[in-house]
Amino acid sequence: MRRHSQRPTLKNLNPVFHKREKSEDNSVVSDKLLKLARKSGALNLSGRGLASVPDKVYDINAGDKDVEVTLESLVAKEEDAWWNQLPLNNLDLSSNQLVQLSPKIENLCSLTTLTLHDNALTSLPKEIGKLEKLLRVNLSRNRLKELPREFFTLPDLRYLNLSHNQFEELNPDISDLHMLEVLDVSNNELNSLPGGIGFLVRLTTLLLAYNHIKELPPDLVNIRCLQKLDLMHNDLIALPEDMGSLRKLQCLYAQHNDIHELPNFDGCDLQELHVSNNFIEKIPKKLCSKLPHLKIFDLRDNKITEIPEEIALLQNLTRLDISNNSVSNLPYSLASLAHLISLQVEGNPIKSIRRDILQCGTVRILKTLRDRQAGLETAAKTSNSSSSLAESGNMGANGLNSPRRGFSFEDDQSIFPDRYKLHKTRCLTVTMQQLTDVPKEVFETACNEHVNIVDLSKNRFTTLPEGLQEMKECCSELVFANNLINTVPSFISQFTRLSLVNLSCNSLQDLPEEFGVLITLRELNISNNRFEQLPKCIYELKGLEILLARDNRIKAIDATNDGLGALKRLATVDLRNNDIEHVPPILGNLKNITTLEIIGNPFKLPRHQTLERGTEAIMSYLRDRIPV
User: Does residue 425 surpass a pLDDT of 80?
Assistant: First the structure.
């Protein structure tokens, strides 16, 4: 008789797709995994197919404190003893099947990072508000429509990612998250933003892409620390008129909206402006003079018919995209943009330049414009009479092509803004005029009109003009970027209200000792100079929050208590492209630094992979290498 093998019953089968039991979830957390988590303070349960959080996770901080302590246990398991364990501060539950969290999450009161992206969460327990040490929370790619009111009481939350959820509105209480620096609510169903959003004064990054927002609240411009604003793929018909109030805004993304007109960006530090796929009809001439640091200007797929000659004022522009507009002529002034490496013009009815030249790309287009401009200038000189030639020669000696010296305020009054403009803007701006000095009466007038911003960038100053002392009690921002300055006079110490000084792109090798008394200074930019070390006076600037010193010759970082460690408010440090050969591990102890840029130096550690992961990874790496 043939004996048949016993067929497996349904009871013995464990199909791949089945309802997840609690016991299966609990089995995921092995003793080995618990031991590792207690040693490192981090637990990674990402991608485990969990339908619920294992019970052991909520009790992980309890440890083995209730276990009887014997001499034998002390000797045998010293490393496993509870006093040698770290409380759980990093919990990763991403890429599972979690629908809800237990109220017992309040047991994890030491958490600083909670990662829950790519789950199926529909709500959070109110007990999450008791995790007062939380710094980073990632809730992206869930099914959340609201957050409990208690969530907005988290006192130290810095990073919040709510992208790819189902929010139709944000709770106004979000304005209570005063420490928030990054907020991502992209890819939701938002129609508007709460009015109190302007109270998030520490916010540096606000991501609102792929929503249905039609209008921005007026107090958005109160977020003075904002550096990146992403508004792409919304239903906006306009941007706030006073966008210039966002002084630190560097990147604005507003593609795929219904915007018809660009606002006044006067005062912004914009480096990237992306407004493609809108209904913009013209480039405001004033905009070109107010954005000296703009590098990328994306205007493709709009309704623009003309490029103004003033486009030449965007001297730092590297990429200009006007594809698919209605431009029929390119101004010769485009050829004067020395840094322009990408000019996209396809899809326009341009008649002034042959199509085959346009198809050759940026270099050929700019060369053609340059050659034609030179031809016109030659023709104009040839047709002038001898008297005109003499007058032209006189202009060559004293005009824009040579430094302006020995002129009076009355003779060249048109160079400087009048009293009305000074009073209205509170800003003295004279750029690209080849100036080497400014009459004292100019500063006197500016002081009488209560001007607090002086911008004399892109001239030929070798030091600060003597007359500037007239504004020592009213000036709060001083911009002398792109000059030939090699010394800063000691009278700088008399400026008792300075909050920003920009001396980038000069020839400085040191700063005077008196510079250290500027206790109100919050931002200092000395990039693109010739510093071989950070001047010691900088370490005396107790109020300094932002230090930009990229593209110098700096060889070392002083992170001691007499160096950067003395600057307790310092949050941003940019030391890219210097000659730094060693990064001291104690730099990682400066927890007030939230942005650290050190790429482009010859040191070997940290490696490039670590640098690309951002400031938090760099600082953690450095702290791990501090000798015990």
Answer: no
Whole-number Å distance between alpha carbons of 408 and 222? 40
**Average pLDDT for residues 29-50, to the nearest whole number?**
89
Q: How far is CA 207 from CA 53, 59, 227, in A?
A: 30, 36, 11
Rounded mean pLDDT, 193-211: 93
Q: Tell me the CA distances in angstroms from 433 to 66, 262, 302, 416, 425, one per residue in order.
A: 77, 27, 33, 10, 20
| DSSP notation for 162-176 | --SS--SS--GGGGG
Distant-in-sequence, close-in-space partners of 242: CB < 8 Å, separation ≥ 6: 221, 263, 264
Q: What is the reported pTM?
A: 0.61
> Which residues are 251's β-sheet partners?
228, 272
Contact 460, 483 (CB under 8 A): yes
Query: Tell me: the pLDDT tens digits for 255-304?
Result: 999 999 999 888 888 999 999 999 999 999 888 888 988 999 999 999 99
Q: Closest by alpha carbon to 553, among 604, 518, 600?
A: 600
User: Is 549 strand, coil or helix?
Assistant: coil
**Cα–Cα distance list, 311 to 45, 107, 399, 417 (Å):** 53, 59, 21, 21
Asked whether the beta carbons of 508 and 531 are under 8 A apart, the reply is yes
Mean of pLDDT values over 157-171:
96
For the CA atoms of 396, 398, 400, 404, what is the dihedral angle to 10 degrees?
Answer: 160
Q: Which residue has the tokens 């400066």?
A: 590
* Pick from 320, 308, 274, 316: nearest CA to 291: 316
Instruction: Say how far apart CA 145 and CA 458 lie, in whole Å.
Output: 51
Is pLDDT of 252 > 80? yes
- Residue 434 dihedral angles phi and psi, to the nearest 5°: 60, 30
The DSSP bridge pattern shows strands 296-298 and 272-274 to be parallel
What integer pLDDT is reported at residue 78 of this predicted model?
A: 54
Mean pLDDT is lowest, of 19-33, 46-60, 193-207, 439-453, for: 19-33
